[in-house]
Structures are given as C-alpha cells and as structure tokens.
Design goal:
Elements: H1 6-9, H2 14-19, E1 23-30, H3 35-47, E2 50-56, H4 65-71, H5 74-77, E3 80-83, H6 86-95, E4 99-103, E5 110-111, E6 123-127, H7 136-139, E7 144-147, H8 159-174
Parallel strand pairs: 1-2, 1-6, 2-3, 4-6, 4-7, 5-7
Helix pairs in contact: 3-4, 3-8
C-alpha cells in the first residue's frame, strides 16, 4: 500500500463542487458554541456532498477564523443559511419536502443502525448544543429523533463526531452500501 498524494485523490475544485449533484441532506446546527465544531461539520458536509448546512440561533457563521481553521475551505464550497432559531429552519425544510430528525436521546428514538432512507428522500438532521443538546421546542417539531447507539460509560459524543457518524450512515444507506466484511 502507498499513501495517495493530493493529486492522486482527484479532489473537486470549489466550482466543480458547486456544480455537482448534491445528496439531498441538510445538517442543521442549533446553538453550537464552538466555531471549531461548526467548521468540522462544514468539512463533513463537503466530504459527503451534502446539499447544505443551516446554522441556527447563536451558532457562529462564516467568515470566522475558527470555522476556517477546521473547515479547511469547506465553508466556501458548502451552501449555508442562517436562521434566528431552529423552528424557522424546520418550517422552511418541511415546506420544501424534507423529513426532519433531531439527533437526541429521547423515549422512542430511532436507533441509527436501523434506519434506511431511499435515494429520493430529502432529509434534514438537527444537531444540538454541546451541553444541552437539541432544545425541547425543536424536538417536538421534528418527524422523529435519531439516537446513536453507545456502549460505554459516557452516553454522549462531541457534536462534530456525532455529525460525522450520523451523516455518513445516512449517505451510506442512501447509496445502498453495505458494511464491508473481511
């Protein structure tokens, strides 16, 4: 095995990314305190060719030096929009035919590994504040809640990590990909 160079990876330019057909998934960030976490989600959204990111509440927005540091340019390629609160974002999403899910531990949550989405489904996933999670008023406006199974003592993940896990699983199932067996 040999590590691939940047040229070998054949990455899209910003212009090529913007012209590419997107995965109809939108990540919604609700009151995220850390700009580094926001930047990380931009980078994940770019990696999975997501339609965009909705930033709500006091979540910081580009241009911001800490977003830039972790996004590594993805803040320029990924479409984003800011809303005063998550409720406004949910209203727009539902009016545009999206199913909206919060990533939160609640009674009757849907376990991530059991979810499947069709390639045509338009999905929005809300990730909440690093300490308090997704707000109750936001949860009740959603079509459901997704929970990441966790096996250890801690039962929470950093928002950037949670976003990577959930967004990859949604993209993977939409693409019809199955786990690799060795």
């Amino acid at each position: 095995m040999q590590k691939l160079s940047m040229d070998d990876l054949n990455r899209k330019t910003v212009a090529e990314f913007k012209r590419s057909e997107k995965t109809p998934v939108i990540a919604v960030l609700e009151n995220i305190r850390s700009a580094y976490n926001v930047g990380s989600v931009f980078r994940t959204a770019d990696a999975f060719l997501l339609e965009g990111i909705y930033l709500t509440g006091y979540t910081c927005i580009p241009p911001h030096k800490e977003i830039k540091k972790t996004a590594l340019g993805a803040e320029d390629s990924v479409e984003w929009k800011h809303f005063a609160n998550a409720g406004e974002a949910i209203d727009e999403l539902k009016n545009n035919g999206y199913k909206v899910y919060a990533v939160e531990q609640v009674s009757n949550s849907l376990s991530l590994e059991k979810l499947t989405f069709d390639g045509d489904d338009k999905i929005a996933v809300i990730f909440g504040n690093e300490v308090s999670g997704v707000e109750h008023d936001t949860i009740i406006k959603c079509d459901g809640c997704i929970e990441i199974p966790q096996l250890g003592m801690k039962h929470s993940l950093n928002i950037a990590t949670a976003a990577g896990v959930v967004l990859w699983e949604i993209v993977r199932t939409r693409m019809g990909m199955r786990p690799i067996n060795h």
